[in-house]
Amino acid sequence: MKVYKQWAKVFLNCKQPTMEEVLEVLSAAENGNLEMFQRLYIQDPSRLSIRDSRGRTTAHQAAARNRINILQFITQQGGDLNAQDNVGNTPLHVAVEAETVDAIEFLLATGAKSDILNDKKQAPIHLATELDKISVLQAMARYKGKVDIQQGGEHGRTALHIAAIYDHDACARILISDFGASPRKPCDNGYYPIHDAAKNASSKTMEVFLAWSESLGCTREEMISFYDAEGNVPLHSAVHGGDIKAVELCIRSGAKISTQQHDLSTPVHLACAQGAIEIVKIMFQMQPEEKKACLASCDVQKMTPLHCAAMFDRPDIVEYLISEGADCNSIDKERRSPLLLAALRGGWKTVHTLIRLGADINIKDINKRNVLHLVVMNGGQLEQFAEEESLLQLLNEKDLTGCSPLHYASREGHIKSLENLIRLGACINLKNNNNESPLHFAARYGRYNTVKQLLDSEKGNFIINESDGVGMTPLHIASQQGHTRVVQLLLNRGALLHRDHHGRNPLHLAAMNGYTQTIELLLSVHSHLLDQLDKDGNTALHLATMENRPNVIAQLLSMKCKLLYNQSEMSAIDYAIYYKYLEAALAMVTHEDRAEEIMAMKSPKNPCVSLALIASMPRVFEAVQDKCIIKANCKQDSKLFSIKYNFICLQHMTQSEEIDEKTGEKLVAKEKSPLPALNAMVAHGRVELLAHPLSQKYLQMKWNSYGKYFHLTNLLFYCIFLGSITCFSSQLMEHEKALNFSYLNLSHMSTEQKYAERKSEILNVQMNYSMYICAMVILVFIVVNGAREVAQMLQQKYVYFFNPINLVTWCLYGATVVMVLPIFGGEIYEIQFSFASMAVFLSWCNLLLLLQRFDQVGIYVVMFLEILQTLIKVLMVFSILIIAFGLAFYILLSRGDHLSFKTIPMALIRTFSMMLGEIDFLGSYVKPYYLSNKDENTFLPFPIPAFLILGIFMVLMPILLMNLLIGLAVGDIESVRRNAQLKRLAMQVVLHTELERKLPRRWLQRVDKSEVIEYPNECKSKKGIIDFILKKWFGSPFSEDSDIVMENSEDYVMNELAKTKNKLKEISQAIETQNQFLRLIVQKMEIRTEADDVDEGVSVKVSSGHSNKWTSPKIRKKIKSVLSFSHRTNSA
Q1: Could you give the 3-state DSSP secondary structure of residue 414?
Q2: Which residues form the Ion transport domain (predicted)?
Q3: Which range (58-67, 424-433, 662-671, 679-688) has the least confidence?
Q4: What is the spatial distance between Cα 662 and Cα 565, in angstroms, rounded to a whole number?
Q5: Mean of the per-residue pLDDT values for the chain?
Q6: Facing residues of 1012 across strands?
Q7: Is 2 left (phi over 0), alpha (psi -120 to 50) or beta?
Q8: Radius of gyration of the chain (CA)
Q9: Region 1061-1082 average pLDDT
Q10: Is residue 713 domain-shared with residue 852, that is, in the same domain?
Q11: CB pairs under 8 A, 24+ apart, for 930-936?
């Protein structure tokens, strides 16, 4: 009962307080009404921890209002003085924020924690410092033992860091003097408080820190020389903050303006980079003795302050530094002077200032580039420098790669710079180290207007056909990069069709890189380029194939290019097969007009294209098969709808007269195997090709032409042989008189005599003429077929013996011969009956194997054999269990006079029969156990282990193993059926091959067909009953409703891709038209932009070849089109 009351009280106290109760309690705490607060607490003690919407408790409210009486009561009742509100503030945080000193002192005195951080990572001491609460800090100082003054908040900043950031000097004094805070503790970022003070221009706080160091006997110079994590002294931080007073304070405190940080830069470097000229002047004025050292000091990159000012285009600081004695010709680590650095960074004002102040323009950087190189490279307005006569001598100077400023202007496409360089007298036929002129550069990057300006110059006609280091002219380069407009311009200006050092013309290079428009343009002007050869005998088609350019291949084939062989006697299709280029091979073998010509090509590498494709690229040959199936262009439900099957890709490999293309002489063709394509599919395991509709239709044509007749004839002869064996066996069981052993007096005979007497009566067989006739038929059949088997054995050699069917055949022939031969001697022997049973069994089983070749029934035979193979493999493994149980039963039952387990072989056989369900539990175990069978002497010598082993046997063998075998047999019947179909197809290929080897070739040519046309919707004529039976039971092995045709799941995807490509092509054409229209509008309205000063073409960085990511010509072409479009859009 007591426990019940306690739980009832708990549940009653768990109810949620109402809003009125919450406001009443918090109001009492806030107003300091102790009497009401006590009364409310007595009514419900849980009200002590009640919270408002901000998460504040009664302790928070009392601390905020400085209600000591409420805080005392809460403390007496065990209330939580460290509770945190929604933003993590404790009552001490709230008291600090409200500056309620009495509450702060009470909380610290009663043990409230002062190291709790709120959501802003602030302890109460941090909050008091940030809010500049002097009185609070003084009150907390009286309890400094309970305050961790070195505690870190956000980023590990202490209260002293916060005072330095906000320049609360009074707080800093209290923290140092009263709390004993040390300015030598860094934050997590490695900054000391004095660095934060310098960075935030907190000069008053800096003075506090410096005075503290002096009070400890430390000099100001030591304090002002503290290094942070980056190696900065406070002066660096002060310069970074940009506060002049902080800089002056640091310098007055002894900071040296020549002090270097980790990267060896001084505060002067930093001020020059930031453009703070006033700070630079103050530093030099306050420490004139350090000025010379600062001006000559270098950072890690060997840059002086003048370099920093020039790099960020600070002309006023540059002029001031030079006036103060800075060397304007000092060089950095890469041998760049301030002038070169300003030109490299595009600081044109600084460049003019330095030249005016006498900077040496002949200085070159580590790449031997002068100021004019850098000005042109970075798009400087050269007309601004035209007045500098000293620059004219730099017009034709070369850098480390041999490039002049004109080379860079041509490469970057700076039209104005190019025009000014030519006008000032720059030589346009200078060559770099690779023997390339500016025209080569302009052609490589597609600078159409640049090429035009160079050709319009005085010596333009002399450089148009100049070759570079590898023999390539500007026309070669423009064709190689696919810049069609540049190619058109060069051809119009009279560019000649030279060859490079590899013997390649511009068409070869355009074909290698896949630029179809360039190819079309070149051939429209010079059609004789189509079949020209390079030094290796390669045509444009060869080179396009080597680079896997399917669009170019299709284009060249459509333009009637010749299919030639190079010096390695390889054609284009040979290279596609050698490199396994799927797209290139598809483009050739599926071409509308030239596919047959390509498939008929022969080379030492690939004597037959079809066989090579089947072996190496089955997907390509599948496309060839698809192309050979042509559907009529009409509705599929129309009677006129037809499907044409062209077998040229499967037939053209037959024997024909070959002619040497070089000498024109006839070559002796080797004897070729029939059906080479289908045999190659079987040899290489190309199931998808063998199951293709074209392959099936081809085999069906062969079957209908002659195959079914020969196979039916063979079946007929075998049926005669089978009937003879069956008849002979039945006659063998016919006796002169019916066997009746009752007349024999066997009572006085022994068991052996009884057995011999009965066997003699069995051997008394009545022989007649029908037996002799059957024996003659059997022997003739065996002799003929035995000779055929011997021929196959000689042909196939040891492979012949790996076929189980051949072994079955020879066993059949051997058993049959032993069965029939003795009758010609007039005797009947006991062995004949044993071999007769074997002959009858094997002959009928062989009939089952022959039926594999026929539809309807053949598929089930193959399925049966497939399942049989699986079962044999499983039984071979689990025969271990049969042996284990058989031996166990032999030991346990053989001594109990059980005949079934008397010997080990009989025990194993009996165990196998028990596995099939014939356990005979009553007769073999129950009756012998109870000894109820008085007629027999059987008993169980070891009953307990016998029943135990029997129980295990019944679980493992009849239940588990038999269900496993059944599951393996029929579990995946569809897969078995599919594999059986394909295996039967492969078998048909082998059978037709063997048949065609024996048939006359002329007769085969007469019955063979090169194509078949079917009308699926045409009503078929009625056939007679014989034809119906033949079709129903022995029909074609290629059913029209067969489901083994593998659906090409990629057809739909390819069609959708083709549609998408067409749509994208239309969109790109529309965009190109709009761009042309916009350009015309811009030209008519004479609108000029900054982009007009840069010529069209590809980006230098993209096509420079430094990154493997963009080395593909196809990707470069896409990038070129995107950048060209962007440029045209911007210019519009």
Answers
A1: strand
A2: 743-980
A3: 662-671
A4: 11
A5: 79
A6: 645
A7: alpha
A8: 52
A9: 77
A10: yes
A11: 936/897
Structure tokens at 31: 């107003």
Least confident window among 13-17, 36-40, 158-162, 291-295 = 13-17
Residues 6+ apart with CB under 8 A from 638: 1017
- HEC secondary structure over 39-55: HHHHHCHHHHHCCCCCC
Sheet order of strands, 1011-1014 included: 629-631, 643-646, 1011-1014
| 896 shares a domain with 837 | no
At residue 414's C-alpha, the angle toward residues 494 and 478, to 5°, is 35
Q: Both tokens of residue 649?
A: 């890709």
Domain that holds residue 455: 367-467
Whole-number Å distance between alpha carbons of 110 and 77: 13
d(CA 1100, CA 435): 19
State the total domains in the chain: 5
Please indicate, yes or no, whether residues 2 and 92 belong to a single structural domain of this protein: yes
The region, left, alpha or beta by phi > 0 then psi within -120 to 50, assigned to residue 482 is left
Cα separation, 1038 vs 854, in Å, equals 9
Joined together, the tokens standing for residue 195 give 């660095």
Strand partners, 659: 666
Tokens describing residue 328: 């304007």
Give the pLDDT confidence score for residue 809 in this predicted structure: 87
Give me the pLDDT at residue 22, please: 73
Inter-CA distances, 484 with 414, 516, 747, 998, 1069, Å = 20, 10, 117, 62, 16
Report the distance separating Cα 181 and Cα 168, nearest Å. Answer: 15
At 592 the three-state DSSP class reads coil
Residue 549: predicted pLDDT: 92
**580 part of a folded domain:** yes
One-letter-per-residue 3-state SS of 472-496: CCHHHHHHHHCCHHHHHHHHHCCCC
pLDDT per residue over 39-78, tens digit each? Answer: 887 888 877 778 888 888 888 888 888 888 888 888 888 8
- Per mean pLDDT, which range of 676-685, 786-795, 857-866 is the poorest? 857-866
Q: What is the pTM of this model?
A: 0.66
Domain edge (last residue) among 975, 999, 1017:
975
At residue 917, the 3 state secondary structure works out as: coil
SS3 breakdown of the chain: % helix, strand, coil, rounded to 5? 65, 0, 35
Q: Which residues contact 123 (CB under 8 A, 6 or more apart)?
A: 114, 115, 116, 117, 148, 151, 153
DSSP symbol at 957: I
Q: Tens digits of per-residue pLDDT, 185-194?
A: 888 877 888 7
CA angle 483, 488, 493 (to 5 degrees): 125
Domain edge (last residue) among 957, 975, 993:
975
Token code pair at residue 171: 């707080």
Q: Are residues 57 and 142 in the same domain?
A: yes
What is the three-class DSSP state of 224?
Answer: coil
Distance CA 204, CA 1006 (A): 114
Structure tokens at 586: 């598809």
On the question of pLDDT at 500 being above 60, the answer is yes
- Asked if residue 846 and residue 784 are part of one domain, the reply reads yes
The stretch 878-905 carries a mean pLDDT of 87
Q: Are residues 459 and 562 in the same domain?
A: no
Other CB atoms within a 10 A radius of the CB of residue 615 amount to: 17
Number of other CB atoms surrounding residue 1120 within 10 Å: 22
pLDDT at 750: 62
Give the residue among 981, 1110, 1108 at the shortest CA–CA distance from 1043: 981
Query: What do you get for the CA distance between the two ends of the chain, in Å?
Result: 93
Q: Which conformational region is residue 59 in: left (phi greater than 0), alpha (psi within -120 to 50 degrees), or beta? A: alpha
pLDDT band of 350, cuts 50, 70, 90: confident
Report which secondary-structure segment, H or E, holds 462: helix 460-463
Structure tokens at 230: 């980056």
- As to burial, measured by CB atoms within 10 angstroms (0-12 exposed, 13-18 middle, 19+ buried), residue 1056 is exposed
pLDDT reported for residue 573: 92
